[in-house]
Amino acid sequence: MKTSLTTTIFLNVAALVAGAPAPTSGDPSHASSTTPDLEARGDTINGMHYCGIFANADSSDAAALVSSLGGDKKKDEYSIASHGCKRVACHNTSGVYVCNDNNHKITVSGASVANAAAYINKHCCYAPSASGRGGYPIRSGQQFTQWGWNVAVGYANCNDDVRLRPADARGWGVDPGTCAAQKGLTNANSNY
């Protein structure tokens, strides 16, 4: 049976929406039940990225949120329960989420979140048709890390519970436009 690229993308998106865990690096230091010190792990992100899989964020708002996480909030710490998600930044109809695929609670810094979100911010939804309301650009994507957690950028209602998963945030059509679904391996954040 011949599988088309579109079918493959839809199956991968379906697995993400269903909550399939991201692959982990197998690093034994990540297997402890204590909260890992992610800041000491460095800046290099190695993991899959997916674009266009959630309802859209406004690109300008998303960029400002990521910039703030890497700037004035870089030392802020965010705890995420085992197999949970947390919206760590929100403005208007845009949010940044961290999801934990590990079997233990994690704590990540704003700087680590911003670093993981950098690929989404720079590459997802850049196409002539990827513009939202009033012609403003849109943003939607997810970046997995080798440490068993991932960052998503997409639609958010800032009044919703911060533990709401990005796939459950609804918002389809709020920041309308088409963000081409794509995926790939982000290796060492070098594909800029």
From TrEMBL:
<keyword id="KW-0732">Signal</keyword>
<feature type="signal peptide">
    <location>
        <begin position="1"/>
        <end position="26"/>
    </location>
</feature>
<protein>
    <recommendedName>
        <fullName>Secreted protein</fullName>
    </recommendedName>
</protein>
